[in-house]
Amino acid sequence: MVKEIKNNKLYFDGCDVVELAEKYGSPIYVMSKTDIESRLSELNRDFVDKYGNARVAYASKAFCSVGMYKILDKFGASIDVVSGGEIYTAKKAGFPAERIEFNGNNKLESEIDEAVEYGVGRIILDGTHEVPLIEKACKKYNKKMNIMIRITPGVAASTHDYIVTGKKDSKFGIPLDDDVFLKVVGDVVNSEWLEYTGLHMHIGSQLFENDAFVEALNVVMDRVAQVKDEFGAITKEVNFGGGYGVTYTDEVRKPYSFFLDPMMEVLEKRSKEIGIERPCAVVEPGRSIVAEAGISVYKIGQIKEVRGIRTYMSVDGGMGDNIRVALYQAEYDGIIANRAEEEPKKKVTVCGKYCESGDILLNDFMVPEETTSGDILVMFSTGAYGYAMASNYNNNPIPGVVLVENGKSDWLIKPQTYEQIIENNQIPDFI
Ligand code: LLP
Fold first, then answer.
1. Domains in the chain, CATH or no CATH each
2. Main-chain dihedrals φ then ψ at residue 178, nearest 5 degrees
3. Which residue among 61, 79, 126 is best mutated to probe the pocket of ligand 1, counting the most ligand atoms within 8 A of its Cβ?
4. pLDDT digits (tens, 9 = 90+) for 301-328
5. Known catalytic membership, residue 355
6. Mutate to test the pocket of ligand 1, among 205, 327, 389 (most ligand atoms within 8 A of CB)
C-alpha cells in the first residue's frame, strides 16, 4: 500500500504529505509512481504476458501529461487519445506513433490530419463522416491507416447515467442496424487507403461486474462473423474498451483478471467457432490505472458553523480542480493529514473556494475534534478525471501535480501561474 500512517501523519509513497504541502504549496495533486506502475505490471502479467497477442492502450483522458506518457512507454503500453491536444502531448513525450490509437465521436479534420501525419497506429472509426476525412489525410501523406470500427453493442452497464456509453441510445459508436453497420464496414474494406483491422467497444466506466462486458463482447463477435461472411474480411483485433472500477469510498476493486479472463474465454471460443485466428485483444483502461495513484492535498481555511445545521470547512481548492462531485455526485474519502491518528468525531461539509454553492468536495465528512484552519486535508483516489477535468473557473490557477516514489518527489506538472491564465487575453482596439 502506498498510503501509510505514522506519527499521526499521512505518508504517500514514502513521502510525508504535510511536508509535501509545505514544500510545493497547496492545493496540489500528488501521484504515486509506484501505484501507477503496479497497475501496469498487473496488466502486463495477467493480460499481455498471460495471453500473448494482447495489448494495453491507456485511456489518456483519465490523466494526460508528458511524464505520464514516459511511464507508459517504459511498460510497453499503447495509448488511446481523443484529441489533437493529446496527440501533441504524446509527440512531445516522444511517444512512438504506432502505439497511439485515436478515438472520438467527432474527430476534427485538423485532428485527423495531425494523427495521420504523425503516423498513429490506428484510428477508431466512430461514424461514416470520418471516412473521407481519413482518406484525404492518407492521400496527402501517402500512408495507409489501420481502422478499428467502434460499435454500440446495445448493452446497458450499471453505472452513473453520464458515463454509460454502450447502450443503444448513445452518441458513441456505430449503431448495429445492418444497413448502417455494413455500409461503414464496406466503406473501410473497399478503400484503398484504409485497412480493416477490427472492432471496438466501450460500454461504460466505473464498472464492477463482468457480465455486461461478456454480453457486449458476444455482440462484437457476432459482428466479427458477419464481417467475414459479407466481405471475407478477417478481424485482426478486438478492443474491449475500459471501464474497470476503482475504490473511492467503500467499493471493492476487482483485479483485472476478473474482467479479462472471462472475456478472453469468449474471444478464444467464438474465434474458433467463426474459423479465424484469435484476434489481438486490446484493453483501454484509464481510471483504474491512475485513480488510486492520486490524492488531492488542500489547506483548510475558513471554518464556519451554521448553528443547528452544519459546519462548513473551506479549503483552498474545490470544483476547479475536482468537478466530479458537482457533476456526478461523486463521493470520496479523505483524511486530515496532520491528524491522521486522531479519532474523527466531528461532522463537517468540506467546501471549496469557488463562487458556487454547489462547490462541495465532501458531504458529511468526519474529522478529528481539534481540526483547525491551517490543517492539511487530503482527498483520496483523485488521480483520474481530476486534473484532467480541471478548469480556470474564477481565474483560479490549475494546481500542479507532484510525482512521488518511495520518498522522492518532483513536479510532474507545475502549477499554472496567473500570467498563464491571461496569456491569451487581448484588448481589441474597439474597447
Ligand atoms: N475507452 C473509451 C472509448 C472511453 O470512452 C473511455 C472513457 C475509456 C476507454 C476509459 O474508461 P475508464 O477505464 O477510465 O473507465 N469523466 C468521467 C469518466 C468518463 C469516461 C469517458 N470514457 C468520470 O470522471 O467519471
1. 3-31+293-422 (2.40.37.10), 53-288 (3.20.20.10)
2. -50, -45
3. 61
4. 999 999 999 999 999 999 999 999 999 9
5. yes
6. 205
